[in-house]
Amino acid sequence: DVAPDKLAHGYRWLNEKWNEETLLHDTKDGSWGAMGAMISSIDEFASYMAIHLSAWPPDNAKDDGPIKRSSVREMHHPWRFNGFNTSYTYPSGRNCAIATAYCFGLGWTRDCEGRVYISHSGGLPGFGSQWRIMPDYGIGVVAFANRTYAPMGYINMQVLDTIIKMAGLQPMQLQPSKILEQRENELLKILPDWNNAEQSGIFAENFFPDYPIDTLKKYARDLYTKAGKIVSVKKVKPDNQLRGSFIIEGEKTNIEIYFTLSPENPPLIQEYHIKEVPKE
Fold it and tell me: Considering the entire predicted model, what is its pTM?
């Protein structure tokens, strides 16, 4: 039971006045049980949103929630594309194209800046609500309104956009896996001459048929010569747990190494690219 002074009542604007709607949480036939019978507060719903946010980023953390974190991420996946708006305008007035898709009962939006939003809206006579999270930023907002079918999505978008701008928030950076860091170090030991590379045991079976050793040596030596003295090697920047790139900083120019590991145990290098990255 909810104390009378804590229970929000819903209203509809009709005939130039506010009309109170009948609460549906206690109908005898239970016809609204799946939605109207659930009474919640902002604090309680924040806990629900926290479960969704805790699923990101993917890692090997212990699953101690009601369902697996991987299952929550599956809910967030954009399974069915359903829209593309090239002229979308944020509440601030900024134009930014967005793509939208349908997940498992949730909505997915990605904007021109790569920001991903997961959301769900709800409404019934007397009420409207929406929650929206940004997994890459680890934040979310929820808004409840006691007006019939109140459209809260636009407000939530404005709130998140404003928070990111005013706080200068940046998306979370994926940390490289141990095997990705290990393969980076092993690559560095054989570059640029590729000595004993075929006997090193760090390459997948497809690697040398796809990348002839003479070509590998030529490209690497030419770029190392062009770079001059090696000043530093940057930490590998992961795309995911099995793919990433790192920068070799030279006196004259820089070199980027991009590589992919195979999905086996242990993961081996199956793809490799090397290119010059001119100094800015």
Answer: 0.77
